[in-house]
């Protein structure tokens, strides 16, 4: 599976409401999957780091950067 396909699949799995972005709650699940961390505090720090445009959600492109950095 190619990197972008992997990212798309992971994104779809945690975007439970299928709105095309990850809310903080959905993001917590993604971070848990990637890092094994269960703390909201850790997820919140990572969320703020990767929410590049500070719109309060993580887009697919922002998630791509995070997934590459943490998992691939």
From TrEMBL:
Q: What InterPro entries has UniProt attached to this entry?
A: EF-hand-dom_pair, EF_Hand_1_Ca_BS, EF_hand_dom
Q: Please list the residue ranges annotated as the EF-hand domain.
A: 2-37, 45-72
State the superkingdom.
Bacteria
Fetch the SMART domains from UniProt: EFh (SM00054)
Q: What is this protein called?
A: EF-hand domain-containing protein
Q: What species is given as this protein's source?
A: Wenzhouxiangella sediminis
Molecular function GO terms recorded: calcium ion binding
Pfam families in UniProt: EF-hand_7 (PF13499)
Q: Which Gene3D superfamilies match?
A: EF-hand
Matching CDD domains: EFh
């Amino acid at each position: 599976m190619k990197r972008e396909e992997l990212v798309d699949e992971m994104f779809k799995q945690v975007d439970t409401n299928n709105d095309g972005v990850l809310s903080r709650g959905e993001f917590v699940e993604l971070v848990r999957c990637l890092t094994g961390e269960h703390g909201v505090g850790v997820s919140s720090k990572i969320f703020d780091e990767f929410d590049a445009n500070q719109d309060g959600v993580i887009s697919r492109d922002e998630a791509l950067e995070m997934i590459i950095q943490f998992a691939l």
